[in-house]
Hints:
A seven-stranded mixed beta sheet has the order 2-1-5-4-3-6-7. It is α/β, with parallel strands linked by helices. The protein is built from five helices and seven strands; from the N terminus they run βββααβαβαββα. The longest helix has 13 residues, at 152-164.
Amino acid sequence: MLTIGQKFPQFSKTAVVSLEKGKEFETLTSDYLVNDDNVWTVMFWWPKDFTFVCPTEIAEFNKNFGEFRDRETRLIGASTDSEFVHAAWRTHHDDLRDLKFPMLADTSKSLAEELGILEPNEKIAYRATFIIDPTGIIRWVSVNDLNVGRNVKEVLRVLDGLQTDELCPCNWEKGQETLTA
């Protein structure tokens, strides 16, 4: 699995960005992650569309979209399902209809495989989260078992800590003192 300090892989994938007819899809590339504007990226992966745990996570990331935006951080959701499956799921699931971030389709499974998060039996993505800095370097990785949803507040807490570029003690939260060496 790719880990902290490594460059996020090159990719070019289709993503669902809207439900508006004719504007549903865009191509996202790894160039989107690298910028001079100090914008970070959180890419989170789920195993399968039309399941039970996955929409709870996606909806929670969406509820916290403003928190990520306030931290100058882009959100990208991803799975190995196709852009058409993503669009259908968004259309038919009340909690997903108004997503404010793209749903990346890794139908070839090449990005999930390169990241090292492809589950070996079903060939679906593990429930993985990557925080990527503006230079395209992975700064945090978390992977949950397929049955356990992640904690979006913890993703925000870690992002806050990374963005301080300081030493943050156990259970540190934004606004608290950091450590001096």
